[in-house]
Amino acid sequence: MALSNVERQGGVSVMLLQGDALQRKIIHVDMDAFYASVEQRDHSELRGRPVAVGGARERGVVAAASYEARKFGVKSAMPSVTARRRCPELVFVKPRFDVYRAVSQQVRRIFEEYTPLIEPLSLDEAYLDVSENSKGIPTATEIARQIRARIHAETGLTASAGVSYNKFLAKMASCERKPDGLFVITPKMGPAFVETLPIGKFHGIGPATCAKMERLGIRLGTDLKAQTSSFLQQHFGKVGPYYYGLARGVDERPVCADRVRKSIGAENTFSADLFTLDEAIAALEPLIAKVWSYCDDSKIRGRTVTLKAKFADFEQVTRRRTVPTPFTTQEAVEEIVRSLLESLFPATKGIRLLGVTLSSLGEGAANERQLRLWF
Predict the structure, then answer these.
(1) Is 142 designated active site?
(2) How many CB atoms lie within 10 A of CB 20?
(3) In CATH, 36-92 is 3.40.1170.60
(4) Most C-beta atoms within 10 A of its C-beta, which of 256, 323, 327, 335?
């Protein structure tokens, strides 16, 4: 296997290996405390203060928190009353999804100057494959530096970036130096980095899977690496071989640009279980708003709403309803979601996660085009 391009950061050489094809160069860009940072940028009186984007009422939920608020333990999906208790000086701001989408599109245009291979994950993060880039820049690290500088200059906001040879490690790298940081995981570093990583920090391994792994004695990457592929497949099904690869720093998933979406959804795992209908309705409001903002921005509609709920004991249920014609307003979606939610109450156990998905997208002449979730 021949050696190809060399990345350098702080004196560290990143050798990209070449077999039949050039090893991928992947960047994961994650805006720092995006919603809260936009509000602090646009309202000078909020700068340096603990800010929560979301509902301030008793049954409200935090959609995003500034870093000043996070120091007090305030985080997204937390009930507003709990956030206020942890940080009495917390300032609540109503979300402005139209503004967040506009900033997201600014960032997307910056990405497009470097590569067409962009896979958005949400309004505030995306993967970029810069193995071959539009500007002919030899290193992914330099591209990440330029992108972060451009984002700051053009939006007044900061972004963190992770650079690596696959998507999983690029995602992990972007978390290492937040906020406003850049971190590189080289092919040589990758396997050792994964071995020391707690299972709970693996991107893509949720609380239920993490708990199951811990019951099997898998607590670190090195424990996961000690398992055979057949063992992991036996206990985790078809995703088992994927976990087997991750434990060795291997992730073959490509960056998928401009995917035709069949559904759009949002979900939150709560720091405290929900027990009342009012709490659950309040928790769903920002999720529905996120889903509808995508539909509004993309000018697409759907006919099927799915409500997902996971209880404290990890039992998961879904409720689904399809209407004859596509939804035209957010209020119509909210009405269906509330109807589906009411069937779960009175709840005999706490709800730890709620999610909303809108599907049956792309129906009708107006929706024949490919769908793009703008970063």
Answers:
(1) no
(2) 5
(3) yes
(4) 327
**Would you list which residues are annotated within the binding site for Mg(2+)?**
30, 124
Residue 37 contacts residue 31 (beta carbons within 8 Å): yes
CA 338 to CA 280: how far, in whole Å?
A: 9
Binding residue positions = 30, 124
Q: Which residues contact 361 (CB under 8 A, 6 or more apart)?
A: 261, 262, 263, 264, 300, 301, 302, 367, 371
Query: What would be the CATH architecture of the domain defined by 191-246?
Result: Orthogonal Bundle (1.10)
For 48, 99, 103, 283, the CA distances from 37, given in Å and listed in that order, are: 10, 12, 11, 22
Q: What pLDDT, in 10s, does the model give residues 292-337?
A: 887 877 778 899 999 999 998 888 899 999 998 899 899 999 999 9
**CB within 8 Å of 65: residues ≥ 6 apart:** 33, 36, 50, 51, 52, 53, 74, 75, 76, 78, 83
| Ordered strands of the 125-129 beta sheet | 118-122, 125-129, 26-31, 159-164, 182-184
Q: What pTM did the predictor assign?
A: 0.71
Q: Which of 39, 68, 119, 125 is catalytic?
A: 125
Q: What is the pLDDT of residue 7?
A: 40
Which CATH number does the domain 263-367 belong to among 1.20.120.1200, 1.20.58.2190, 3.30.1490.100, 3.30.450.40?
Answer: 3.30.1490.100
pLDDT tens-digit profile of 37-74?
Answer: 999 999 999 999 999 998 766 567 888 999 999 999 99
